[in-house]
Design brief:
Helices cover 25% and strands 27% of the residues. With 386 residues, the chain is α+β, with helices and mostly antiparallel strands. It has an eight-stranded antiparallel β-sheet with strand order 2-1-4-5-6-7-8-9, with helices on one face. The protein starts with a strand and ends in a 16-residue tail after the last strand.
Length: 386
C-alpha cells in the first residue's frame, strides 16, 4: 500500500506531501490543484511504461508544467508585507520531482531541463535522478538503486556496484532495467506502479463507446474510458463478484437488474427495471445511470489493482445516488487502495464517516497546500540533491 505521495514543482504543486490510507479522499475548491494532484499520480505511472517524457511534452513541455511562482515564498510575502517576487538567483536547479513510498520502499524521479544542443528535441525534458530506497525515508544507507548523471548504482549482496549501461536521458530505470533477477528492487517498484488504474471523465454522451455493442471477450479490467463496459460486466457476472455487483446496482437503483445480451459475438448492456415490459439498452440509459454502471464495473474488477484513483466520480450523478456510491467505494477499498478526488461534500462526509483519510486543498498565493498541514503534521520526506 502507498503511504506517501510527494510532488515538487508541478504546476501549482510547489511542494506537496500527502499521507495515503486504504481510502483517501481529496477535496478543494475549483482551481486549488485537485486535477494537478490527479495528474501527478498519472505522471508517476507513466514512468513505468516509458511515457513520462511524452506526457510532459504533450502538456506543452517541462517549462509549461513547472511551478510558475517564486522559488520560495517568504513569511513577508504571505503576510502581504512585500509583493510576491523572485530573487536574483536560484538556490536549487529547475526541476520537477515526483515520489512515493509504500510500506516497504520508496521511489523518486527528478526531471529537469536538457543541456542546450543543436538537436530538434532540445526542448524535451530529461531525467536527472532516480532513486529506490528501503524504508519510509530516503537515506544514503537505505538506497537500493541510484541513477544520476554519473551512472547507475545498484546495492546487491556483495555491496554497491555500478551498472555498465548507458541509459538515454529520456528513459526511466523502470522501463529499461527489466530483469527481475538482476534488478529485483526495480522490478518490485515497476510491478507496483504498473498496477495502478485511473478513471476520469467517462464518456456518457449519445455516441459514447459504452452505449454501443462491444466485442464480447473476457475483460477482467475495465478500460480507462469504459469502451468495454459490456464484456467487463459479463466477466464480473461470471465471477465470484456477481452477487456484490448486483447488490451495488440495486442499492443505487432499487429493483434494477443488469444483464448482458449476446448479439452474435457482440455484447450489449441491458437493465431490467420494475414496471417496464422490456429491458433498457445502454443507449437508452441516463447519463447518471450509465456512469454509475461504469464506476461499479471498475470497482468490482475481478482483478483489483494495487491502487485506483478516481477523479470527480460524482459527475452527472443525482445526490440521492451518492450514498450508494460511497458504500460502493468503501467496499472496494477492502480489495484495493482507493484515492478519490471529488467536489461533493456529501460524498466526502460519507467516506469520512467510514474512516477515510481526508485532505482538503487550498491555494494561497497560487500555491497548492494541504489545509491544516504544518511543519509538525507534514509527513517526513527528503528529496536529496543532484
Amino acid at each position: 500500500m502507498l503511504t506517501t505521495l510527494a510532488v515538487h514543482g508541478y504546476r501549482s504543486l510547489r511542494e506537496v506531501v500527502l499521507t495515503l490510507d486504504r481510502l483517501t479522499v481529496v477535496t478543494g475548491a475549483n482551481g486549488t490543484g485537485k486535477s494537478n494532484l490527479y495528474r501527478a499520480f498519472q505522471l508517476l505511472a507513466d514512468t513505468a511504461s516509458g511515457r513520462l517524457i511524452g506526457s510532459l511534452a504533450a502538456a506543452g513541455g517541462l517549462t509549461s508544467v513547472l511551478w510558475a511562482g517564486p522559488e520560495t515564498i517568504s513569511g513577508a510575502m504571505r503576510r502581504g508585507e512585500v509583493p510576491v517576487q523572485g530573487t536574483g538567483s536560484r538556490k536549487a536547479p529547475i526541476s520537477l520531482q515526483l515520489g512515493f513510498t509504500t510500506d516497504d520502499f520508496g521511489y523518486l524521479i527528478d526531471v529537469g531541463l536538457p543541456v542546450p544542443s543543436d538537436t530538434l528535441f532540445s526542448r524535451d525534458p530529461v531525467i536527472k535522478r532516480e532513486l529506490v530506497w528501503a524504508g519510509p525515508v530516503l537515506r544514503p544507507a537505505a538506497t537500493l538503486v541510484q541513477r544520476t548523471a554519473r551512472g547507475v548504482q545498484v546495492l546487491g549482496d556483495d555491496g554497491r556496484r555500478s551498472v555498465e549501461i548507458a541509459l538515454p536521458p529520456w528513459a526511466s530505470l523502470l522501463g529499461e532495467l527489466v530483469d527481475p533477477l538482476g534488478y529485483p528492487d526495480l522490478s518490485a517498484v515497476r510491478d507496483v506502479v504498473r498496477g495502478w488504474r485511473f478513471y476520469d471523465s467517462f464518456r456518457v454522451d449519445a455516441d459514447a463507446p459504452a452505449r454501443q455493442p462491444q466485442v464480447g471477450t473476457r475483460t477482467e479490467v475495465l478500460a480507462h474510458d469504459g469502451h468495454d463496459l459490456a464484456p467487463a460486466i459479463a466477466t464480473i457476472v461470471e465471477s465470484a463478484w456477481q452477487g456484490p455487483f448486483s447488490a451495488a446496482v440495486a442499492d443505487a437503483f432499487p429493483g434494477t437488474r443488469v444483464g448482458i445480451a449476446d448479439l452474435g459475438g457482440r455484447f450489449e448492456v441491458q437493465l431490467t427495471q420494475p414496471g417496464l415490459l422490456r429491458p433498457l439498452t445502454a443507449r437508452e440509459l441516463s447519463d447518471g445511470t450509465l456512469r454509475y454502471l461504469l464506476l461499479t464495473a471498475a470497482l468490482f474488477s475481478p482483478r483489483p489493482p494495487g491502487l485506483m484513483v478516481l477523479n470527480e466520480p460524482e459527475t452527472s450523478l443525482h445526490p440521492d445516488v451518492l450514498p450508494a456510491l460511497a458504500r460502493l467505494m468503501v467496499a472496494a477499498s477492502q480489495r484495493c487502495q482507493l484515492v478519490v478526488v471529488t467536489h461533493s461534500a456529501s460524498l466526502v462526509d460519507a467516506l469520512e464517516a467510514a474512516g477515510a483519510t481526508h485532505h482538503e486543498l487550498v491555494k494561497p498565493l497560487g500555491e497548492t497546500e494541504v489545509d491544516g498541514q504544518g511543519l509538525l503534521t507534514r509527513p517526513t520526506w527528503h528529496w536529496g540533491s543532484r
